[in-house]
Amino acid sequence: MTPAEGDPIATLSTTLGDISFVLYPDIAPMAVENFVGLAQQGYYNGLSFHRVIEGFLVQTGDATGTGAGGSTIWNGNSYPNEISDRLHHYAGAVAMAHAPDGASGNLSQFYIVQSAQDSVDKTLAKTLTEAGVREAVVTAYQAVGGAPYLDNLNTVFGQVYDGMDVVDAIAAVECGEDDRPLEDVIVNSVTIGTYSAAQSGSTPASGASGSDSAA
């Protein structure tokens, strides 16, 4: 998908390359506000991807590097989910991980979905349809893959448009039994800006748009 001119975007500069994604403040305002605020404070700089599961997701955002930490711009207080049928866990979706205490609140940890293009087969597509998932959403999942079982559970607030090859590279690193990479992959910095086609020298990632209108 290609962002619209002027859309808010973020770029993660990692030790394996850059990942750029569009943000959806109109759909997930608290998640975007918290992410942008923490990024501008430099919170994410130097953090590792502490949870990596190839074919599923790559996760970062914990200053302790253990998966047990997190923070927010609201003095560390968690904030609620912002679930919308306009955003889904397609491959490349950027979503909040729940607070480590297991509650439904969110802090600073987030993940990027890294699912194979064929991860939603005909059987799963049929199950989604029978569960009442809209045809356009099922079709998009079949086209690009994703993790539909996370819909209605976690807050999607962004969608990668450039750098999925970097996400794939992170997902491919060797990990231990706790899903932590044996050699750290680090977020060097996070840059917040607005999308400009004239300034973008990259080829946008193909696939479904992260946002769509509910029928």
TrEMBL record:
Keywords (A to Z) from UniProt: Isomerase, Rotamase
Main EC class the enzyme belongs to: isomerase
Superkingdom field: Bacteria
GO biological process per UniProt: protein folding
Single GO molecular function: peptidyl-prolyl cis-trans isomerase activity
Enzyme Commission number(s) of this protein: 5.2.1.8
Domain PPIase cyclophilin-type, chain residue ranges per copy: 9-192
Catalytic activity, as annotated: [protein]-peptidylproline (omega=180) = [protein]-peptidylproline (omega=0)
PANTHER family: PEPTIDYL-PROLYL CIS-TRANS ISOMERASE-RELATED, PEPTIDYLPROLYL ISOMERASE DOMAIN AND WD REPEAT-CONTAINING PROTEIN 1
Annotated family: Belongs to the cyclophilin-type PPIase family.
Function as written in the Swiss-Prot or TrEMBL entry: PPIases accelerate the folding of proteins. It catalyzes the cis-trans isomerization of proline imidic peptide bonds in oligopeptides.
Name listed for the protein in its UniProt record: Peptidyl-prolyl cis-trans isomerase
Lineage of the organism: Bacteria, Bacillati, Bacillota, Clostridia, Eubacteriales
